[in-house]
Here is the input.
Amino acid sequence: MSALRTDIRNVAIVAHVDHGKTTLVDAMLWQSGAFRANQDVNDRVMDSMDLEREKGITILAKNTAVPYDGVKLNIIDTPGHADFGGEVERAFTMVDGVLLLVDSSEGPLPQTRFVLRKALEAKLPVILVVNKVDRPDARIAEVLDEVYELFLDIGADESQIEFPIVYTNAKTGQAGLEPDALAENLKPLMDLLVEHIPAPSYEEGHPLQAHVTNLDASPYLGRLALCRVHNGTIRKGQQIAWCRTDGSVTRATVSELYITEALDRVETAEAGPGEIIAVAGIPDVTIGETLADLEDPRPLPVITIDEPSLSVTIGINTSPLAGQDGKKLTARQVQDRLQAELIGNVSLRVKDTERPDAWEVQGRGELQLAILVEIMRREGFELTVGQPQVLTREIDGKVHEPVERLAIDVPDDYVGVVTQLLALRKGQLEQMVNHGTGWVRMEYLVPARGLIGFRTEFLTETRGTGILHHVFDRWSPWFGELRTRPTGALVADRRGVTATFALMNLQERGTLFVGPQEDVYEGMIVGENARADDLDVNAVREKHLTNIRSAGADVLVRLVPHRILSLDQAMEFLREDECVEVTPHNVRLRKVALDKNARVKLGRKARASNTD
Ligand SMILES: Nc1nc2c(ncn2[C@@H]2O[C@H](COP(=O)(O)OP(=O)(O)OP(=O)(O)O)[C@@H](O)[C@H]2O)c(=O)[nH]1
Ligand SMILES: [Mg+2]
Here is the structure.
């Protein structure tokens, strides 16, 4: 017989990036009394990783529990950036419904579509939360229309389209059923949540089934399996059947058992259906496995999520300056670290390459891969990172490549420029809306290949005003040759330390990436050439000293400040024959082949194969 846990609700908060999910979870935590009034807590406490705080975005999905009116609300805050979509898909396996957040002015954007599509596929009921209703440029009626259109477009059925709506200001912690009548607190939202999100259901007397949906590590306990209990009861000290992804079943012991209260893990003796728990004692457990009854093990289906669409090659640092900065340099260390990342990061894959000291790392997007590299360099690694490449797959005997859905917001003056940029990249305009405020939104389908390195050019062309977001949409037949970066590189022709005199001459040729007194080596990229081809340059030459002082010879010329590329910008800049050298303190661009003669040979070969 099936029964309900009416004292629990499990819900995921999903949205496009920056629409206010983490802020809303904060407000819920405050109102539940999780923090004392005088306690010193950060804004957006759920964004607890260093990089999350620095970048102001959520990277990992995390759960918290908020008590409300005798019901325990397990809330999963998810990232909104498209590259971390795997986290959202995983979160959907833990919950019985979702809060779909939409910004009252921006409306639904590419990632809104992605998360809604996944939620509807999983048959999860949706509550629409229109957030930031305090924005002076809110356009609530239109945004609602756009959301209904989105539901229809995705193919929602009638029951799915009858979703309740609540309006919020997450910053002040207020909600209301009408946009212009917010309550003092979030009560209207919480009531709706309890009423509309189904309580977890289970079969009475069914043997234990707990699904491992996430992993965590504790310095004292080792690996923790975060699970949702679907049926039965799990107890501390109990012997269980550990059903592995490879189909084998092993005996294991629950050495510690925890549930979540607000932001803390608290020990518990047992946990029943619907609860979200952390289990210690199974060192090699991974995501998708089931903890089951020893006598009657019944594994749950493995968790499947979208395949990666982008890859980069990550290897040891092979530059002449290797080893000066980091403490983790060997192929063994890099390989072990990448393997370790795979365990908790479901949307990544690592493949061997023909080299023993480099691996192909596959993921969802440039930011996801750049963040992995950033985390590794902070741990002391030195690495070489190649140009991001799209992954292809064969469908019905034809090569297909990933196509992204791209949304662009620009002042209407720039519509022409943007149209041109995207035509070069084989983008297809899907929709164009003029909001009448001087801003235009355009939606495109573009091969993912065309978007590699696009952001920099887009920002330059729109003078920093444009906003763009994209997310994987579909696989389409190969689009043929696409244009890449239109400029070449200024390449250092020898090793040494840069000299002001040399740089002064070089800055006429393009944009420099190095300042004076920096180490350079043959094959390192010291700047962007304004022309299309690469140019070998001497960046270390000092001025010849002469005995004769000629009048006016020492005119004071100024060195323009050089452009400092962040890791993501450096990865965006790359062409195929280029890579980035990453150390804890430096990001240097370089040619894959450092030696000039080798580069000339490779260039000839590439040209020959292009004209075939
Ligand atoms: N005016 C206004 N600003 C808000 C509101 N809610 C959130 N914000 C702001 O919006 C920004 C983004 O908020 P977050 O909570 O980090 O958004 P998020 O959805 O968690 O973002 P990701 O996790 O990166 O996808 C922050 O600067 C918030 O202060 C609101 O109701 N009104
Ligand atoms: Mg967030």
Observations:
- The pocket of guanosine-5'-triphosphate (ligand 1) is lined by residues 15, 17-23, 44, 57-58, 79-81, 131-132, 134-135, 169-171 (CB under 6 Å).
- Residues 596-611 form the longest helix (16 residues).
- Residues 112 and 576 are 33 Å apart (CA to CA).
